[in-house]
Amino acid sequence: MTEDKTEFTQVDISQFYDITEEETEQQDDGIILTPNERALYEELMVYVRQKEPERVEILESRIRDLNQLASAIARFPSLLERHDIPGGIRTPQLLIDSLIKHQNSGDTTLQLPSKATLGKGYIVSKIHTFSSLTSLSQRVGAPEKLTQALQLETITMMFTLMAEDVYLNLINDAMQPMEFRREWALALLLLWEHRNDQTIESVAPVLQSVWSARRKLAPAFGTMMGTSELLLMSIQMDEQWIQFIKQKMGEQGVS
C-alpha cells in the first residue's frame, strides 16, 4: 500500500468572499464611526473647509488617532470566545462567573478584562471628539439640525458609558435572581466587545428629554421629596414618560 504524499496549498478563506481591500482594512481596524456618525462628520467637514480650513488637518488627525486606538483594542482577545491566555483558559462563562464573584470586593478595576478598561478610555476619547465637533458646528454656522444631531450622538455615547455602570450595579445586586444577573453580565460582555448596546438607541431620546427638562428646573425646597420637581418635569415630557409614571411609580424600586 503506497503512502499518499499529496500536498495541499493553504488558501486564504477571504478569497471566496466579495470583499474589497478597503473593506478588509476596515474589518481589521474595527469600526470607529457608525454610518450615521460618518455621515454627520462628512457633512460638518464641508462647512469646516469653507469657514475654518486650517482645522481640517487637525480633525482628520484626530480621527486617525481614534482609528489607531480602536485597532489596538481590537487586537486584544475577544471576550466572547474561548482563549488560552497567559493566565490560563478564559471563556465567556468564566468571565461572567468572575464578574458576579468579585462585585462585592470593593474596587473591581483590576478584575476587569484589559479590553473593557481600554474600551472605556476609547469611548471617552470619542465623546470628547464629538463634543468638540458639536461646538465647531455652532462656530462655523452649520445648520442647527446638524449641530443637534452631533449633540445627540455625543449624548448617546455618554449613555453607553453610563450603561456600563448600570450593568455593574445590577450584577452587584444580590437581591436580584442569579439568572438575571448572568443575563446582565452577558449584556455587559457584549457592550465591552462592541462598545455598543442595542437598547441605548431606543432609550437615548427619552433620557435626553428627561435630562433637558430637569436642567430647566429650579429646586423647590420643602418636605415633598421632590414631588413638585417631578410634576413640573413631567409636564414638559411626552406621552411615553407619562405612561411610565402611571404604570411604574407604584413599584417601590422605581419610586
In short:
By secondary structure, the protein is mainly alpha-helical. The protein has helices spanning 21-29, 35-51, 56-74, 92-102, 114-139, 144-172, 178-194, 200-215, 227-236, 239-248; strands spanning 83-85, 88-90. It is built from ten helices and two strands; from the N terminus they run H-H-H-E-E-H-H-H-H-H-H-H.
Architecture overview:
64% of the residues lie in helices and 2% in strands. It is mostly helical and 255 residues long. The chain folds into two domains: 29-200, no CATH class; 216-255, no CATH class. A two-stranded antiparallel ribbon has the order 1-2. The longest helix has 29 residues, at 144-172. It is flat, with a radius of gyration of 24 Å. Mean pLDDT is 80; it is low at 1-30.
Strand order in space, largest sheet: 1-2
Note poorly predicted spans.
1-30
Helix content: 55-70%
Strand content range: under 5%
The SSE string, one letter per element, is: HHHEEHHHHHHH
Largest sheet: 2 strands, antiparallel
Task: Kindly state the number of beta strands.
Answer: 2
- What is the subunit arrangement here? single chain
Number of helices: 10
Number of domains: 2
Structural class: mainly alpha
The best one-word shape is flat
Distance between the termini: 81 Å
Q: What Rg is obtained from the alpha carbons, in whole angstroms? A: 24 Å
Mean pLDDT, rounded to whole units? 80
